[in-house]
Amino acid sequence: MAAPKVAVVGAGVVGLSTALCIAETCPSCSVTVLSDQFSPNTTSDVAAGMLIPHTYPGTPIDVQKQWFKETFAYLFALSNSTEASEAGVHLVSGWQIFKNTPTPKEELPFWSDVVLGFRPMSEAELQKFPQHQFGQAFTTLKCDCPPYLLWLEKRLKATGVQMYTRKVADLWELHSEYNIIVNCTGIGAHQLVGDEKLFPVRGQVLKVHAPWVKNFIRDGDGLTYIYPGIHRVTLGGTREKERWSLSPDPGTTKDIFDRCCSLEPSLRGAQDIKVKVGLRPSRWCVRLEKEVSSRGGVKLLVVHNYGHGAGGFSVHRGTAKEAARLVGECIAALQGSSSRAKL
Questions:
Q1: Which amino acid positions bind FAD, per UniProt (predicted)?
Q2: pLDDT digits over 39-53, tens only?
Q3: Is the whole model's pTM more than 0.85, yes or no?
Q4: How many angstroms separate the CA atoms of 303 and 326, rounded?
Q5: If you ran DSSP here, which 8-state letter would residue 121 be given?
Q6: Residue 252 marked ligand-binding
Q7: 306: alpha, beta or left? (left if phi > 0; alpha if psi -120 to 50)
Q8: Is 55 annotated as a binding residue?
Q9: What top-level class would CATH report for the domain 5-337?
Q10: Which of 143, 176, 203, 321 could be cross-linked to 148 through a Cys-Cys bond (beta carbons 3.0 to 4.6 Å apart)?
Q11: Phi then psi for 136, rounded to 5 degrees?
Q12: For the segment 107-154, what is each residue's pLDDT rounded down to a tens digit?
């Protein structure tokens, strides 16, 4: 059969990484990325891009850990390369702190042996945070956006992947042009495939200029965080379930700033404050599976990879590799049916 044509719908961190993994593992394919938004206008551009996993209740922990390990290893190699600064990938050390004694799961999270140098904080370190009882120190990775998305786009173009701005209202509109569709539409899947299990968790963050802040600080409840990037520091945040508004809320901006300043008082001197809002595509578990849908005897092969919630950056490469493997299975099935047809 002719080279299989694959369309990846969505150009956030999950869509671009998935397209890259498909291009790398199935070089005989023709891969196209279709999206109504590219960087700097994706949800991924709002995210802080920190590799600190969020747990998906409906996904086995060993699977989540594998996704995180693969993502961490990929980005660690990138942070150790000449492309690190262009890709916006760097190591960052800091603290996760708790007001109360943490649960055993919080005290030793499943990812503690993947990040670097994970250990309990000393009494002396905790003096920085008088309101907190306990904390952990470790080094992890951060992807700055838009640089990381632009680097992925550059890699895709170098491997011959086409990218087009196009609003896809129904996956079936692609069936005459492509053999396999990969759905990486994030919150867009709510409407595109009618996924009622998918809901937005609204996140509002501030991106500020405070170059003296070098260490990350994350409150254990995950609501307040300070994540230094190469050029700007991301201050957060909010987790507002089922709220679809993309308009910044001035009261929320003040609340986030005050909360972050209580952990790092020097932020009072931060300048050039920009407010960003994104909708995290949240569900009980990441939807990562093959689906064969049919209409009037015509089959459409779809691979879904969406619903990463607040943890997209932490697992993006691991889930992209799994999605590429599923695309490989679809291609094998197509080639099998095409050779049977010849017989």
A1: 43-44, 168, 185
A2: 999 999 999 999 999
A3: yes
A4: 7
A5: P
A6: no
A7: beta
A8: no
A9: alpha beta
A10: 143
A11: -125, 140
A12: 999 999 999 999 999 999 999 999 999 999 999 999 999 999 999 999
Please state, in angstroms and rounded to a whole number, the distance separating the CA atoms of residues 61 and 278.
Answer: 26
Q: Which two tokens stand for residue 253?
A: 């901006």
Q: Determine whether the annotation assigns residue 266 to a binding site.
A: no
Q: How many residues does the chain have?
A: 343
C-alpha to C-alpha distance for 325 and 339, rounded to whole angstroms = 21
293 carries a ligand binding annotation: no
- Token representation of residue 24: 């790398």
What tokens appear for 22 in the block?
A: 């498909």
E strand or H helix that includes residue 233:
strand 233-236
How far, in Å, are 6, 61, 71, 172, 299 from residue 296 at the CA level? Answer: 22, 40, 40, 12, 8
Q: Is 297 left (phi over 0), alpha (psi -120 to 50) or beta?
A: left
C-alpha 256/C-alpha 177 separation (Å) is 46
- Confirm whether residue 225 is marked as ligand binding: yes
Domains of the chain, by residue range, sit at 5-337
